[in-house]
């Protein structure tokens, strides 16, 4: 039986990965948690958020419960979510618990919902540190089978979850990410002032995200080297992740130290300016569960080149050029087209804005609340 219309759902959410550090930890999943916490109350949901002692506090009216455990340490965080979280849930009297990043508490009797963003740690295990890979593989599978409902952030992620984890497809709900309204075309004078302040070139290709193997940045550097253009730079912006030294090594080997720039982690408030200042945005990933930077760039009117793999065509729609991420020549040809064809850039910019407008955090929150209601209405699958 469905819950009565208008009855508020009380959900507890593990928000320990809300990061206050200037690093890759403040990237994708951090923003997903943040936007859920700030949007769910408007969708008619009562939220209690569990935070660590150094977790960022969302600017919202939800109830916050901060642990004294030093959960900025990964092992301590794992212990908290499996050992301490069930007791914290008992104290809050929340109706259900949401694990927004793959894993939920296995020892709680409360209904569980988890979000699976991608299964790259299953598909590309060699690209992850062994301890991280083991944690994600074992606990994601166990959490997915315990959960009453599983949220997948794309159709591709839903299909992967069913195929690789053996989760029934009818237990999986597809809920896309949204795009923050701050991502939009900005006044030219504001963009040029930012460009001057940062010392950015007039023309550059932008990658923005964590520097890690799955992002395929070595091939991006190789494809850029084939352009042989001195009037364009390649900027690889984002926090350093893991196994990223080959990217820096390849830049040195190709003699591109003056052409490929690494500005490091980009604060969230600067992101729209970076997208607006770029000639084009490039995300050549081998595998993504969603690909949020694509929509952010599109919302800013910036033309996009991305991979023809995994969820990326689904998310990019008709607002991007697609290329085989393992074909350096094809990537180089796509970059060349974006740099030389003004009409193509303008067309992709307009189509990209239309595509990005389909994704809002308000819709994400409303769809997530519907998942909670389905989880509470059904009995736990065995």
Question: How is this structure best summarized?
Answer:
The protein is 41% helix and 15% strand. The protein has 382 residues and is of the alpha/beta class. The chain folds into two domains: 187 residues, Glycogen Phosphorylase B (Rossmann fold); 169 residues, Glycogen Phosphorylase B (Rossmann fold).
Give the secondary structure arrangement, pairings included:
Elements: E1 9-14, H1 28-39, E2 45-51, E3 63-66, H2 74-92, E4 96-99, E5 112-116, H3 120-123, H4 130-146, E6 149-152, H5 155-165, E7 172-174, H6 188-198, E8 204-208, H7 217-225, E9 233-237, H8 245-253, E10 260-264, H9 271-277, E11 280-283, H10 292-299, E12 304-307, H11 312-316, E13 321-323, H12 328-340, H13 342-356, H14 361-377
Parallel strand pairs: 1-2, 1-4, 2-3, 4-5, 5-6, 6-7, 8-9, 8-11, 9-10, 11-12, 12-13
Helix pairs in contact: 6-9, 7-8, 7-12, 10-13
Structure characterization notes:
There is one protein chain. By secondary structure, the protein is an alpha/beta fold. It folds into 2 domains: 9-178 and 361-377, Glycogen Phosphorylase B (Rossmann fold); 188-356, Rossmann fold, CATH 3.40.50.2000. 41% of the residues lie in helices and 15% in strands. It has helices at residues 28-39, 74-92, 120-123, 130-146, 155-165, 188-198, 217-225, 245-253, 271-277, 292-299, 312-316, 328-340, 342-356, 361-377, and strands spanning 9-14, 45-51, 63-66, 96-99, 112-116, 149-152, 172-174, 204-208, 233-237, 260-264, 280-283, 304-307, 321-323. Strand 6, helix 5 and strand 7 (172-174) form a beta-alpha-beta unit. The protein starts with 8 loop residues before the first strand and ends in a 5-residue tail after the last helix. Residues 22-26 have low confidence and may be disordered.
């Amino acid at each position: 039986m469905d819950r009565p219309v208008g009855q508020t759902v009380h959900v507890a959410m593990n928000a320990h990965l809300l990061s206050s550090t200037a690093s890759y930890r403040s990237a994708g999943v951090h923003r997903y948690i943040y936007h859920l916490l700030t949007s769910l109350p408007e969708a008619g949901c009562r939220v209690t958020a569990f935070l660590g002692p150094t977790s960022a506090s969302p600017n919202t009216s939800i109830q916050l419960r901060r642990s004294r455990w030093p959960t900025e340490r990964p092992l301590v965080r794992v212990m908290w979510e499996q050992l301490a979280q069930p007791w914290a849930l008992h104290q809050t009297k929340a109706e259900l618990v949401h694990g927004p990043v793959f894993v939920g508490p296995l020892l709680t009797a409360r209904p569980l919902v988890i979000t699976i963003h991608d299964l790259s740690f299953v598909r590309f295990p060699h690209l992850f540190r062994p301890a991280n890979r083991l944690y994600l593989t074992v606990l994601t599978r166990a959490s997915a089978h315990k959960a009453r409902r599983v949220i997948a952030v794309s159709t591709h992620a839903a299909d992967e979850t069913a195929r690789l984890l053996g989760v029934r497809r009818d237990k999986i709900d597809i809920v896309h990410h949204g795009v923050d309204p701050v991502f939009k075309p900005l006044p030219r004078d504001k963009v040029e002032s930012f460009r001057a302040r940062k010392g950015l070139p007039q023309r550059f290709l932008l990658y923005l995200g964590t520097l890690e193997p799955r992002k395929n940045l070595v091939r991006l550097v190789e494809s850029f080297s084939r352009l042989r253009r001195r009037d364009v730079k390649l900027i690889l912006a984002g926090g350093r992740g893991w196994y990223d030294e080959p990217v820096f090594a390849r830049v040195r080997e190709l003699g591109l130290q003056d052409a490929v720039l690494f500005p490091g982690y980009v604060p969230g408030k600067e992101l729209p300016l970076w997208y607006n200042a770029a000639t084009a945005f490039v995300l050549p990933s081998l595998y993504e569960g969603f690909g949020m930077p694509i929509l952010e760039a599109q919302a800013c009117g910036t033309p996009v080149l991305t991979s023809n793999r995994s969820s990326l065509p689904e998310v990019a729609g008709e607002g991007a050029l697609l290329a085989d991420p393992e074909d350096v020549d094809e990537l180089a040809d796509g970059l060349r087209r974006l740099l030389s064809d003004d009409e193509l850039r303008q067309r992709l910019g307009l189509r990209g804005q239309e595509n990005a407008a389909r994704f809002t955090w308000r819709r994400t929150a409303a769809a997530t609340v519907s998942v909670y209601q389905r989880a509470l209405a059904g009995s736990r699958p065995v």
